[in-house]
Amino acid sequence: MEVIIKPLITEKMTAQTDKFNRYGFVVNRMANKIEIKKAIELQYGVSVQEVNTMIYMGKQKVRQTKKGLQQGRTNHFKKAIVTLNSGEAIDFFSNI
């Protein structure tokens, strides 16, 4: 089971990174906090102080088009906010 799906790089997460040394990740919905902590430490070589998780339910989306109503839904996902120890950082853009 792959725990980390992708990092969250948004304006809000960038502000939290600068201010509180927190990073956001989209993770597998079945992963718990201990597995998330181990995966982050192993993949990025940092020590994690705290892990907070939240589950987002998908939303129904409807739009009007020439062909009529188009219905769909966004995906469910789990988000993890990881706080690192002071003095440590993760560089997402180092391998570009």
What report would you give on this structure?
The protein is of the alpha+beta class. The protein has a single domain (4-84), classed as RRM (RNA recognition motif) domain (Alpha-Beta Plaits). It is 23% helix and 42% strand. The chain is built from two helices and six strands; from the N terminus they run βαβαββββ. The chain has helices at 11-20, 33-44, and strands at 4-8, 22-27, 48-56, 60-65, 68-73, 77-84. The strands form two sheets. Strands 1-2-6-3 form a four-stranded antiparallel beta sheet. It has a two-stranded antiparallel sheet with strand order 4-5. The chain is elongated and about 55 Å long. The model has no long low-confidence stretch (mean pLDDT 95).
Q: What topology emerges from the helices and strands here?
A:
Blueprint: E1 4-8, H1 11-20, E2 22-27, H2 33-44, E3 48-56, E4 60-65, E5 68-73, E6 77-84
Antiparallel strand pairs: 1-2, 2-6, 3-6, 4-5
Strand order of the largest sheet: 1-2-6-3
Number of strands: 6
State the CATH superfamily name: RRM (RNA recognition motif) domain
Low-confidence stretches: none
The N- to C-terminal Cα distance equals: 26 Å
Please give the count of helices: 2
**Main sheet summary:** 4 strands, antiparallel
CATH architecture: 2-Layer Sandwich
Gyration radius, rounded:
16 Å
Task: Tell me the fraction of residues in β-strands, as a range.
Answer: 35-45%
Number of individual domains: 1
Give the SSE order as H and E letters. EHEHEEEE
Average pLDDT for all residues: 95
For this structure, the CATH topology is: Alpha-Beta Plaits
Top-tier CATH class = Alpha Beta
Classify the secondary structure makeup into a structural class: alpha+beta
